[in-house]
């Protein structure tokens, strides 16, 4: 238990950059030697193995300076505001209010009216014995044809 | 109509006068608000179109295309933010101005009453697109691509100008709303044959028809992401829209004049789908997939039945959203790996699982999975071509199979399998990218709940 806590403390100290040990001392109970790290205060060396085959030198990693980057801008404040604008206006206003508008469109292209009108006309014509539909679109007696030319 | 044109025009001073840190925020915000107002166009009547003035009108065909245009501008702005971050401020503002200008011309094209006005705006859309492709494209081939794009479309549309002026002289007016009622059947003669060809070739090149499609892979691949998005989603549909309008004047010779083009499209959709299976370049695959889908639209428009018109309109909107989303996904890959080769960035599902979910959805809608509107469009087209001629079902069925094949091929190559070691350190997906994908996908999915607004004037 104590060893685990000790190891955590050592790890914490190491990541924080503090030297895990400030003087060199040898343990009396074991053959362990605790010494200050020779790498303390030094920057980590460049990796010798490149991950990318063809690295672009001007590739900017937006996460480096700003780990919470949303991908819009380098400046964290502008980045966050851009994200908020996109989400609020894009989703909350346009998609939500827009879909509500579309869902409640009154009788788009008068389809429902057309059905009601058709049912009403059928009911009327059946009640009065009229044919349901005439094959003539217009009344033939009202069409005036030009004189036949011989 | 001014309620769309003036805010879009005012986006220009907004870009140029905004503070440096606020250009993207301001333009995205205001273009989203303009897209909200575009929904007002959905107040369509059953027996007439919305006639705003003598110059502008909007019916059930142009309304969904207009809404798509106005929805796409904020998406293009979001997609371009990253690759323009290194440019100088003036260049960024110039790019945004080109996008806004393009949006303006597109709005005016889709709502034009007068066909010469339509033609002028149709040609005017070429200029900002050419500037976007040739100035902000990434490879040296962009110059060749711009040339192909410009001259193919210009060569196709010059006869259209002549034909339109001829119609103005003979019919007396080119106002589309009047022409609908004045149109006389066109008798069969050689000059009318050429008249038919003159009217249609501009739109055939734009769609593109299979034999005239060479500009499309070049332009789509070399354009920056915003250019690819607007090309695939809207500019191709200009061709379909124009064809649906102009065929009103060209009956009844369309019955036999359309045969060569129907044959070319039927064969072309299989050919281009098959080419997709052989592509190594991701953007090129998506570009050829666009040709294949548009070939379906061409067939639908040329056979001129009510169901085929409904299918064509639905397919145009569905393909606009899907294709634009696929280009955004390809661009998210490109920004990380700086290469469009598919196998170079493979096995992404383990590294970027949320982006893999978007890839899956985009691929599924691309292969017309039910109940998406892609399926509704394709199904209507397949049904109407079957009733036009039974044999086409074989070609249509084959096309749907090959479409499924290459969509899944693209999905599996980029997402599944073991990822390569050299992409171990690619950056996680940005909120911007996920928001972009969901802004493409959500309208697509919502439309499958209420497709009547995209089924066009014959619904």
Automatic annotation (TrEMBL), chain A:
Keyword terms of this UniProt record: Electron transport, Membrane, Mitochondrion, Mitochondrion inner membrane, Respiratory chain, Transit peptide, Transmembrane, Transmembrane helix, Transport
The keyword Lyase appears for this protein: no
Region Disordered, annotated ranges: 36-73
Major localization listed first in the record, in broad terms: mitochondrion
Source organism superkingdom: Eukaryota
Composition-biased stretches (Basic and acidic residues): 62-73
Subcellular location: Mitochondrion inner membrane
Membrane spanning stretches: 85-106
Function: Accessory subunit of the mitochondrial membrane respiratory chain NADH dehydrogenase (Complex I), that is believed not to be involved in catalysis. Complex I functions in the transfer of electrons from NADH to the respiratory chain. The immediate electron acceptor for the enzyme is believed to be ubiquinone.
Self-association and partners: Complex I is composed of 45 different subunits. Interacts with BCAP31.
Homology family: Belongs to the complex I NDUFB11 subunit family.
Name of the protein this chain belongs to: NADH dehydrogenase [ubiquinone] 1 beta subcomplex subunit 11, mitochondrial
TrEMBL record, chain B:
InterPro entries recorded: NADH4_N, NADH_Q_OxRdtase_chainM/4, NADH_UbQ_OxRdtase, ND/Mrp_TM
Source organism per UniProt: Ovis aries
The EC number(s) this enzyme carries: 7.1.1.2
Pfam family of the protein (one): Oxidored_q5_N
Membrane topology: Multi-pass membrane protein
UniProt function note: Core subunit of the mitochondrial membrane respiratory chain NADH dehydrogenase (Complex I) which catalyzes electron transfer from NADH through the respiratory chain, using ubiquinone as an electron acceptor. Essential for the catalytic activity and assembly of complex I.
Ranges of residues in domain NADH:quinone oxidoreductase/Mrp antiporter transmembrane: 112-402
Biological process, per Gene Ontology: ATP synthesis coupled electron transport; electron transport coupled proton transport
Keywords for this protein: Electron transport, Membrane, Mitochondrion, NAD, Respiratory chain, Translocase, Transmembrane, Transmembrane helix, Transport, Ubiquinone
Any one GO cellular component localisation term in the record: mitochondrial membrane
One Gene Ontology term of the molecular function aspect: ubiquinone binding
Annotated NADH:ubiquinone oxidoreductase chain 4 N-terminal domain residues: 1-109
Catalytic activity, as annotated: a ubiquinone + NADH + 5 H(+)(in) = a ubiquinol + NAD(+) + 4 H(+)(out)
Major enzyme class: translocase
Protein name: NADH-ubiquinone oxidoreductase chain 4
Transmembrane segments: 21-42, 54-73, 94-110, 116-133, 145-167, 194-216, 223-244, 256-277, 284-303, 309-330, 351-369, 389-412
Localization per record: Mitochondrion membrane
Family: Belongs to the complex I subunit 4 family.
């Amino acid at each position: 238990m104590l060893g685990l806590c000790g190891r955590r403390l050592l790890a914490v100290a190491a990541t924080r950059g503090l030297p895990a040990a400030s003087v060199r001392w040898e343990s009396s109970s074991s053959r362990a030697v605790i010494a200050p790290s020779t790498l303390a205060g030094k920057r980590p060396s460049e990796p010798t193995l490149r991950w990318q085959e063809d690295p672009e030198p001007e590739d900017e990693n937006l996460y480096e300076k700003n780990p919470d980057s949303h991908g819009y801008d380098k400046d964290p404040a502008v980045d966050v505001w851009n994200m908020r604008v996109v989400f609020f206006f894009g989703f909350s206003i346009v998609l939500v209010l827009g879909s509500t508008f579309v869902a409640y469109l009154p009788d788009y292209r008068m389809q429902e009216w057309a059905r009601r009108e058709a049912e009403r006309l059928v009911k009327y014509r059946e009640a009065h014995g009229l044919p349901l539909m005439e094959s003539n679109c217009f009344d033939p007696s009202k069409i005036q044809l030009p004189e036949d030319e011989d | 109509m001014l309620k769309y044109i003036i805010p879009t025009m005012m986006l220009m001073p907004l870009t140029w006068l905004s503070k440096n840190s606020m250009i993207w925020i301001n333009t995205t915000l205001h273009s989203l608000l303009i897209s909200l107002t575009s929904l007002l166009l959905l107040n369509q009547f059953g027996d007439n179109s919305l006639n705003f003035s003598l110059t502008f009108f909007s019916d059930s065909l142009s309304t969904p295309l207009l809404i798509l245009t106005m929805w796409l501008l904020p998406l293009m702005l979001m997609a371009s933010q990253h690759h323009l971050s290194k440019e100088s401020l003036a260049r960024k503002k110039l790019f945004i101005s080109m996008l806004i200008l393009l949006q303006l011309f597109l709005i005016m094209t889709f709502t034009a009453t007068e066909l010469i006005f339509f033609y002028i705006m149709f040609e005017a859309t070429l200029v900002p697109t050419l500037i976007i492709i040739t100035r902000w494209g990434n490879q040296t081939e962009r110059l060749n691509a711009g040339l192909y794009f410009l001259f193919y479309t210009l060569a196709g549309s010059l006869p259209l100008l002549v034909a339109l002026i001829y119609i103005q002289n003979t019919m007396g007016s080119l106002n589309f709303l009047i022409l609908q009622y004045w149109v006389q059947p066109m008798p069969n003669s050689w000059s009318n044959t050429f008249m038919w060809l003159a009217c249609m070739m501009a739109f055939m090149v734009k769609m593109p028809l299979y034999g005239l499609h060479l500009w499309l892979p070049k332009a789509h691949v070399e354009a920056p992401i915003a250019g690819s998005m607007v090309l695939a989603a809207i500019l191709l549909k200009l061709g379909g829209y124009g064809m649906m309008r102009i065929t009103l004047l060209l009956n009844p010779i369309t019955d036999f004049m359309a045969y060569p083009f129907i044959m070319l499209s039927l064969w072309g959709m299989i050919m281009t789908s098959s080419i997709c299976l052989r592509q190594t370049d991701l953007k090129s695959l998506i570009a050829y997939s666009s040709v294949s889908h548009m070939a379906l639209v061409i067939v639908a428009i040329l056979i001129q039945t009510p169901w085929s018109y409904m299918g064509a309109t639905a397919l145009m909107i569905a393909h606009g959203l899907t294709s634009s989303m696929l280009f955004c996904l390809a661009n998210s890959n490109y920004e990380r790996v700086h290469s469009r080769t598919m196998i170079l960035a493979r096995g992404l599902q383990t590294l970027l699982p949320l982006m893999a979910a978007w890839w899956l959805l985009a691929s599924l809608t691309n292969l017309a999975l039910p109940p998406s509107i892609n399926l509704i469009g394709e199904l209507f087209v397949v049904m109407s071509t079957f009733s036009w001629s039974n044999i086409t079902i074989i070609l249509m069925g084959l096309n749907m199979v090959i479409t499924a094949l290459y969509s899944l091929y693209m999905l599996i190559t980029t997402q599944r399998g073991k990822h390569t070691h050299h992409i171990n350190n690619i950056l996680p997906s940005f909120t911007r990218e996920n928001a972009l994908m969901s802004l493409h996908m959500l309208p697509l999915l919502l439309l499958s709940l209420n497709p009547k607004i995209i089924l066009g004037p014959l619904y």
